[in-house]
Amino acid sequence: MSRQRSITALLAVALGLGAAAAGAGAPHGPTDRSVKLDLIGKLKQGPGILILGDSRGRQAEPSLLQRLTGHTGFNAAVTGGSAPDAWVFTRYTADLFPNQKRRYIWFVSWGITGYIPDPRMEADPRGRRYLAEVARYLSTQTVTPNPWQTYTRYRPDGSIADKTPAAAPERAKKLRAQAALMVAQIEQDPPVAPPPDPARFQLFEHLIAYMNALGARPVIVLNAIYPTVLAELQKYGNPLSTASLNYLRSLQSRYDFVVVDCQNSHTWGGTDYDWTNPTHVNRANMRRMLRYIVTHAQGSLN
To answer: 3-state class of 70 per DSSP?
Structure first.
């Protein structure tokens, strides 16, 4: 495997991407995208805070945000969520509940976000409608998610319904072993920042501009990285995260948003055992992170 291909493979593991090149026709079954669109449609009032992102943001509880900020919320983070998904949830919510002030928390990882539409969103008529609005910003590349079906047990506010298993020594040992594997992969093929791709970020910027036009100052949260994995990345300057932060800084003269860097879990009081795996914090750590996010949102969630 070439250096570039192995780096891409590591990034796919770190970001939890489960997509493969499109081939056979799309399978059928429940997906979190349609379920969460359904839940938004059943809300009696629009959420004061809309949570966006991929699976790393799904642990965020709107009920905790309401206690911290006084505003209701809805968690629209989905498996493999990227900019096209964030656009659909943002537009759909704005159309259902117009003339309402809304705040946004958008969880992102290395590379900020993708611009390839997920066929699970395209399979929903509501998804197709809003994706058509931004077709010029979308990649023509297609993917087939594997598996097609996703977790769909959500509360009315979009939060995960299942309980988080309590931390246990055997789970902590497995977590450390998984992280050690990632560290070994980094040691073998240190990551490098990919060449800039302006097309990748057009939809991201378009959505930030749209939120600004609605009077919102979105909070962009860089997802946590397991401590030993982060320490290994920092040996090489953490180039992927550095490139992402530099890109975000370059936008702040044109758009109004706040960046809250949560990559180092120790900065927000995270533990080394409250993780589902080395790329996903569990609910206990997410609660700590949300408190940090609200405190460092510079008033954007007031």
So the answer is: coil
Overall domain count for the chain: 1
Q: Which residues, in sequence order, are CB contacts of 250 under 8 Å at separation 6+?
A: none
Which residues span the domain enclosing 201? 3-295
- The rounded distance, in Å, linking the Cα atoms of 219 and 272 is 25
Q: Tens of pLDDT along 34-43?
A: 999 999 999 9
Residue 300 domain-assigned (yes or no): no
Q: What sign does the dihedral 36-50-163-171 (CA atoms) show?
A: positive
Q: Is residue 301 part of a domain?
A: no
Q: Is 16 left (phi over 0), alpha (psi -120 to 50) or beta?
A: left
Contacts for 102 with CB less than 8 Å, ≥ 6 apart? 46, 47, 48, 49, 50, 93, 94, 214, 216
pTM flag (> 0.85)? yes
How confident is the model over 78-125, as pLDDT tens digits?
999 999 999 999 999 999 999 899 999 999 998 899 999 999 999 999
Q: Which helix (H) or strand (E) holds 169?
A: helix 169-188
By CB neighbour count within 10 A (0-12 exposed, 13-18 middle, 19+ buried), where does 234 fall?
middle
User: What is the domain-level CATH number for residue 231?
Assistant: 3.40.50.1110
Judge contact between 33 and 89, C-beta under 8 A. Answer: no
Question: Helix 198-213 and helix 83-96: axis angle, to 10°?
Answer: 20
- CA distance linking residue 162 with residue 73, whole number of Å: 19
Q: Are 13 and 51 in contact (CB under 8 A)?
A: no
- Two tokens at 142? 């297609």
**Residue 85 domain-assigned?**
yes
